Amino acid sequence: MDEVLELAPGDTAWLLVSASLVLLMTPGLAFFYGGMTRSKSVLNMMMMSFGAIGVVGVVYVLWGYSMSFGTDAFGEGTAGIWGDPFEFWALNGLLPGTDEADPYALSNSLLTGIPAIVVVGFQMTFAIITVALISGSIADRVKFSTWLVFTGAWVSLVYFGLAHMVWGGGLLSGDGPFGSMFTDIAPIDFAGGTVVHINAGVAGLVLALIIGKRRGFGKEPMRPHNLTLVMLGAGLLWFGWFGFNAGSAGAADGLAGLAWVNTTVATAAAMIGWLIVERLRDGHATSLGAASGVVAGLVAITPAAGALSPVGSIFLGLIAGALCALAVSLKFKLGYDDSLDVVGVHLVGGLVGTVLIGLFATETGLFYGGGIGQLVVQILVALVAIVFSGVLTLIIGLILKVTMGWRVTADDEVEGIDITQHGESAYDLDPTASGSGASGVLANATKKQGAQA
Amino acid sequence: MDEVLELAPGDTAWLLVSASLVLLMTPGLAFFYGGMTRSKSVLNMMMMSFGAIGVVGVVYVLWGYSMSFGTDAFGEGTAGIWGDPFEFWALNGLLPGTDEADPYALSNSLLTGIPAIVVVGFQMTFAIITVALISGSIADRVKFSTWLVFTGAWVSLVYFGLAHMVWGGGLLSGDGPFGSMFTDIAPIDFAGGTVVHINAGVAGLVLALIIGKRRGFGKEPMRPHNLTLVMLGAGLLWFGWFGFNAGSAGAADGLAGLAWVNTTVATAAAMIGWLIVERLRDGHATSLGAASGVVAGLVAITPAAGALSPVGSIFLGLIAGALCALAVSLKFKLGYDDSLDVVGVHLVGGLVGTVLIGLFATETGLFYGGGIGQLVVQILVALVAIVFSGVLTLIIGLILKVTMGWRVTADDEVEGIDITQHGESAYDLDPTASGSGASGVLANATKKQGAQA
Amino acid sequence: MDEVLELAPGDTAWLLVSASLVLLMTPGLAFFYGGMTRSKSVLNMMMMSFGAIGVVGVVYVLWGYSMSFGTDAFGEGTAGIWGDPFEFWALNGLLPGTDEADPYALSNSLLTGIPAIVVVGFQMTFAIITVALISGSIADRVKFSTWLVFTGAWVSLVYFGLAHMVWGGGLLSGDGPFGSMFTDIAPIDFAGGTVVHINAGVAGLVLALIIGKRRGFGKEPMRPHNLTLVMLGAGLLWFGWFGFNAGSAGAADGLAGLAWVNTTVATAAAMIGWLIVERLRDGHATSLGAASGVVAGLVAITPAAGALSPVGSIFLGLIAGALCALAVSLKFKLGYDDSLDVVGVHLVGGLVGTVLIGLFATETGLFYGGGIGQLVVQILVALVAIVFSGVLTLIIGLILKVTMGWRVTADDEVEGIDITQHGESAYDLDPTASGSGASGVLANATKKQGAQA
Amino acid sequence: MKLVTAVIKPFKLDEVRAALLAFGVQGMTVSESSGYGRQRGHTEVYRGAEYTVELLPKIRIEILVDAEDADDVIDVIVRAARTGKIGDGKVWAVPVENVVRVRTGERGPEAL
Amino acid sequence: MKLVTAVIKPFKLDEVRAALLAFGVQGMTVSESSGYGRQRGHTEVYRGAEYTVELLPKIRIEILVDAEDADDVIDVIVRAARTGKIGDGKVWAVPVENVVRVRTGERGPEAL
Amino acid sequence: MKLVTAVIKPFKLDEVRAALLAFGVQGMTVSESSGYGRQRGHTEVYRGAEYTVELLPKIRIEILVDAEDADDVIDVIVRAARTGKIGDGKVWAVPVENVVRVRTGERGPEAL
Ligand SMILES: Nc1ncnc2c1ncn2[C@@H]1O[C@H](COP(=O)(O)OP(=O)(O)O)[C@@H](O)[C@H]1O
Ligand SMILES: Nc1ncnc2c1ncn2[C@@H]1O[C@H](COP(=O)(O)OP(=O)(O)O)[C@@H](O)[C@H]1O
Ligand SMILES: Nc1ncnc2c1ncn2[C@@H]1O[C@H](COP(=O)(O)OP(=O)(O)O)[C@@H](O)[C@H]1O
To answer: Which residues are recorded with the post-translational modification O-UMP-tyrosine (chains D, E, F) (predicted)?
Structure first.
């Protein structure tokens, strides 16, 4: 009551912008992924991202924020896994204008001086993009309805859980067992290396194994059908990632600036790292490689953006770009069809970033004289995240397999999931086609009118 | 004089960002619309949006702002229709640096602490997008020159008029007759449900009726030629709409945050609403449906973004998505060619949003115990806007019909408006075509040089 | 020490946003340029922009900022050309958190109240886009490796030099000889007319002359392969340019607002100017013309955005749009292959903007009673920039010509630089192609695995 | 048996197909092509440089028919495809041996 | 010499090409086309308006062969392209004169 | 009457068309196709996975000519299309009956 709660308009402006930027990442991802599929499945690929916005957008305000940042669901004081879904149900207590003494609900806000509702918006966008990321591993073959159900279940049980553990004061936070292992050392996850990338990467791997390969995987060519779309996606992802990383500073200050610069230089370096591997291994530096390197760099710097120096970020980026470039070939070797390399980019990139913090963090990293502690903590936290996400995703995935079923029929997959699941085809570029019957006949523009009457 | 006018940098930063976001919406609309046309008219479609930026951008700083926010043109104190075009002609009195005591012209600003020139920029972008919205109803068949003239005339007479009435202290504002009908109840239009969407929707309907159908409408297939472009447009529109809605809070505060969250959840819900209707009616949930649902949700939440709770916004979105999905089929039933569904999405969506405020507004809505007053006011305001926009658009449209003429020739329309009006074709994707003569011969690169000498 | 250094969160928020916007411009440019090439070289074109981000991103934090804004390399007090690369090597002294009394290194920041690291990020994005701009003049024919080396050398010697001269207190700044020629008149370059556009334009011309024409230039048609991509690029460039120009105000204030509005109206007017020339000369107003006019207007207003009134900006835009539309034909007349018109748009547009400040500046311009002084200074500064950039680019370009060589082989150029340099093709849009062998056979998914083991 | 090939204007495809079905033809194979002939192309302008597009879009239809039907089929196509303006296209017939239906292996007229 | 033309389902191209190579055919020319016949098309829906796509994607292969090989080549194609479902396509042969290899000017069987 | 068909390298189309016009041919029909033969394709790499593109882009030209001109037309094409490198393509002729100009209904040589 005697605490002064003052609105910080500059910080609030930056968080509003950041939330908008992160929301843009999901359409950006839709283009990045969509361009990489064959042209007969680009619409389905994009719909998996857009569908995630639809489902998670609704779920988040009902129970999502509460499960992430509410008090531990199974009793105060325990280092819990999920927050209480009913504490902030429907954003109860977080809306502006309900308490006259605190019109912006600043006392309930996670960030000083920023209205609670702004933080809710910002956090919501992270949940959305994380689910959407998973879809890359199961491209071209999954029923849209099953995907939507998965989206709701997974975000509720797995994402909100991990968010609670890492950011909501739970198991993997500074207050949890790993946070108190070493003096003065807390697990570092600046903007979501574990919660977002390791989490999505593991879930992608599990689903790829449960659902099985695309027909023709490893035999037929499945090359990207539109690399300009991939580049567009990469560009929008980078742009949006400034909100993701620099926004995670929670204020418009020097830390945000550091995260901004680190994000940029690590990504630049990762692009170079990926292209070097390609040049040496394949003889060509490709544009798909550049786009992939960009994303790998963004992923790797995510947990580390506030803890490294720019030079450290360059090294982190180079390593992440090179390792991810090598990792994307694993699927052919090991025989799982992680179609668009969620494992190779997000799991590997997320691990690289999370673990290398133990070496490069300017305050506690091994290379900066900080001892082994940070490295140990980072590895342990990553392992817990892997196990948690892996086990729960497996359970959800298997339940859906035996109930709704995951895959479209073989014929539908061969004909193309866009036409068979969505009744559409993406392109009709021949200017002479329309009205020539080559593209179709308007069969029934008015048939269904009864439905609207 | 004794009033303290202090710059609010945080709020100013947010308004600068918001203005930039709203400007991006018009190119976004160009892609959304452009992808829905046939490939022989995508350039013309995009040019209608870009042309609107060109014309309105110039007009706005000369007399547009003044007609919107100047004193009533026909005498002080009357609840007028247009503001005085000469009061702030060429932004007179709004520019920074002209008055030493008030270097940012804060005393003339519509928003506290924000330089007047920033508000001008923000408002300008609303005028641009509104005109551009109309173009969707008259795709593929209109002379570019007539469109440009229409743009200038319509924005001056209709848009600036309605903006003045609703936001400039005129007929439909809190000070007007509808504002004083009920105690404590003013018409609510948070970010432009009447001024922008109902207005553009009505104008689109009137023009579609005046100009007539595309050749082959209802017989030939006229399917979207590039759905990735449509999705891109939807993504950019959503992103830009954060400036539109959350920027309309006029500050970086909790209200902006509420508008941001409401915008997101209503849009997510509207996408779901549209897809459910499609699934039930057509058997498929389509990507065009998702993109359309997104826009329908954004439209419907526009007037309501600051007045509802997030849960109310979910309901509003669901209803708007479903109703718009049904409304887009009306054109086939009634036989008007609103080519890209400006009526079905913007008029219907705008009406849904404007009217449902009467039910869902947390302070005055019927469902929240606020009585019938708000609902009545909202309906009346919507009706006035419909009549005003309808009559004036009819007059402008008919004058242009008998003077310049609206339509390109039948042959030009069949061959394709891109080639015949703009001398271009959008795509030349075959990598072997260039230099093979398949796509043309460089006839005359240098012929016209006399003109430049 | 006794100086009070206080963080300005609102201004910092705006600069963080601006930096993000300017970074987005380079992908935007990649699409603008990429759409204009033939479809067999779009990937290479985009890679030149993305490669520039990679190289400059790394270089900038190591020595770039220091060479731009460090003390004169050749002795304190001289009006030097380059800053000392080691003064702020690796951002030494600019990082947050190193000095407890000044946690945001505000005392070293170029902008009051904004953390030094934020300014570094903002400035970095300018260096990136400038290099990328050059690539338009040498499309379709340059080895990717040579381009990357050029990028690093040119940005270090030419860009950082000119940035130092104009913004870093060097030769062309207010403190230099031209700044003291006339009382009260300093050279005006608000956001980079000389440093960015004249500089890139001259470099583009020199490289086009050194490297020579594309095979078939002036004979074969080389029309844009995807105008929707060009429009997308133009839209993103415009959006990003708000950060470029309004961000250059260095604060979220009225000056930023003025720059924002001037940027918008000049660009709108330039689009109209370009379209009028096209309509009169060619008979058609084209979408490529609209996109080009947009960029011409953005270029021309860049140096002038803070010094003109909105009405002055309209005139500037009209003139720039018209002159650039005429200038792009010069290459056919004079016979150099400036493939995507870097000279016609950036050099000419940059000159128009820089010189016309002498006429239109509201405080010192000739038309506003300011005398001839500003005009003279502007012309002199432009000439120095032209000579500096021209000579150094010539040297770098020739050294690369005799060492690495610039051009791919004639066969590789004819077959298409995407396939021969990058081993990729941009589009595979036929939905039936995959798995039919029409687009290829998966030859060797796993061959190279040894490399990863 | 004969193979009748027709090169027609793209927007006439619907009418031609309808006419052929009405006549009793069961199937056809259609492809995109470009034609050069008396019909003049159009001009495009990009940044002031003019391009003349000489090849005009056409649709190419192939129909396998019984030898005795060939003339009638040609007439049906010519009637349906005619606009009377330059560029309407050509129709011709070529003798064919050995038509096989892939699905069944049927040969000759049964394969149609 | 004969020209064998085959209209087949797109995803069968790989198998057909492999079978032809195995048989000894050295080259072929392939183009995209659309087919109309007994096989039914699919339906697409855009904002509630239904379109029936009647023309289905097909691949058209042309192979110049020695006259005596024509029947065998046809058999090879038919076997490789068959799925047994409607829409598998047609194969036919046409007599040819005067085949020339552009590179060398060789004529007749040597040109293949 | 004959139908001369040529499969050539795409960038040779301009030269071939010019040569045909010079010879007196009034029209032709052109389509895109892909060729398989002695000429080797190229390799593309996406995220480390290699694809061999075996089908190479070709242009297919069809020209209806008077029977006596067929050999000359073939020669004109062969000369204009030759680069001397593998993959230059093939030209062949097929006998034709019944050419009709759609616009006028003219038949035979007048239809050309
Ligand atoms: N000699 C020819 N061989 C093959 N196709 C031809 C020939 N002449 C014309 N065509 C085709 O017929 C089309 C129409 O021919 P054109 O001379 O323009 O008009 P018209 O047939 O009405 O006289 C051309 O575009 C081309 O596709
Ligand atoms: N009379 C015909 N002339 C030319 N092509 C034909 C003819 N009939 C069928 N076709 C081609 O063969 C394809 C398959 O024919 P369809 O009747 O659908 O199946 P099926 O050959 O199995 O009976 C068609 O899509 C079309 O391309
Ligand atoms: N037997 C054939 N039937 C049809 N087209 C063929 C045949 N052989 C080759 N072609 C076409 O001719 C093109 C060139 O043939 P190729 O063997 O590569 O070179 P060349 O003709 O110089 O020996 C091929 O790409 C293909 O389109």
So the answer is: 51
Kindly state the DSSP code that residue E86 receives in the 8-state scheme: T
**CA of E30, closest atom in ligand 3:** 27
Residue identifier of the C-alpha nearest atom 6 of ligand 3 = E28
Q: How far does the centroid of ligand 3 lie from the alpha carbon of residue F44, in Å?
A: 22
CB contact under 8 A, F86 and E94: no
Provide the number of structural domains found in chain D: 1
Q: What are phi and psi of E59, to 5 degrees?
A: -110, 135
Letter string b/e over residues A357-368, b meaning 16 or more CB atoms within 10 A of that residue's CB: bbbbbbebbbeb
The range of the structural domain enclosing residue E71 comes to 2-111
Touching E: B residues 276-305, CB under 8 Å: 278, 281-284, 286, 288-289, 292
CATH number at residue E11: 3.30.70.120
Rounded to whole angstroms, the Cα distance separating C12 from C254 reads 15
In the numeric block, the tokens 């085949």 are attached to E99
Q: Which ligand minimizes its atom distance to the CA of D9?
A: 1
Helix or strand holding residue D63 (H, E): strand D56-65
Q: Contact at 8 Å (CB) between C126 and C244? A: yes
Residues forming a β-bridge with D101: E90
Specify the range with the lowest mean pLDDT, choosing from A182-186, C32-36, D34-38, E103-107.
Answer: A182-186
Separation between Cα atoms, residue C157 and residue B245, nearest integer Å = 46
Q: Tell how far CA A385 is from the center of its chain.
A: 14
- Asked if D48 reaches chain F (Cβ–Cβ under 8 Å), the answer is no
Q: What is B9-402's CATH number, 2.40.50.140, 3.30.360.10, 2.70.70.10, 1.10.3430.10?
A: 1.10.3430.10
Q: Is F59 on the interface with B (CB under 8 A)?
A: yes
Q: In the numeric block, which tokens belong to residue A295?
A: 């994303």
DSSP string, F42-87: EEEEETTEEEEE--EEEEEEEEEE-GGGHHHHHHHHHHHH--SSTT
Using one digit for the tens of pLDDT, what is the confidence trace for C192-202?
A: 999 999 999 99
Of F32, F87, F90, which is closest to E31 when you measure between CB atoms?
F32
Taking contacts as CB-CB distances below 8 angstroms, the residues of chain B near C271 are 50, 53-54
**DSSP-derived secondary structure letter, B442:** E
How near does any CA of chain A get to the CA of B448, in Å? 29
- Contact status, residue C45 vs residue C53, Cβ threshold 8 Å: no
Q: What is the CA radius of gyration of chain E?
A: 17
Per residue in A109-163, pLDDT (tens digit) is 999 999 999 999 999 999 999 999 999 999 999 999 999 999 999 999 999 999 9
Q: Kindly state the tokens that stand for F64.
A: 């209806």
Question: Does F86 contact ligand 3 (Cβ within 6 A)?
Answer: yes
Q: Which pTM value belongs to this model?
A: 0.96
Q: Give the Å distance between the CA of E91 and the centre of ligand 2.
A: 10
Q: How far is A352 from chain B (nearest CA, A)?
A: 31
Q: Which residues contact D74 (CB under 8 A, 6 or more apart)?
A: D4, D91, D93, F98, F100
- Atom number of ligand 1 nearest to Cα F103: 22
Cβ of F33 closer than 6 Å to ligand 1, yes or no, is no
CB contact under 8 A, A341 and F44: no
Helix axes B9-36, B287-301, angle to 10 degrees: 140
Integer Cα distance of B253 and B265 in angstroms? 19
F33 in contact with E at a CB cutoff of 8 Å?
yes
Answer whether D53 sits within 8 Å of B440, measured CB to CB.
yes
Among the listed residues B303, B302, B299, the one whose alpha carbon sits nearest the alpha carbon of residue B325: B299
ipTM of the complex: 0.96
Residue B436 CB partners (closer than 8 Å, separation 6+) = F10, F11, F12, F13, F14, F59
Q: Contact B214/B141 with Cβ under 8 angstroms?
A: yes
Cα within 13 Å of Cα(A443), Cβ side: 15
- Local confidence band at E11 (pLDDT 50, 70, 90 cut-offs): confident
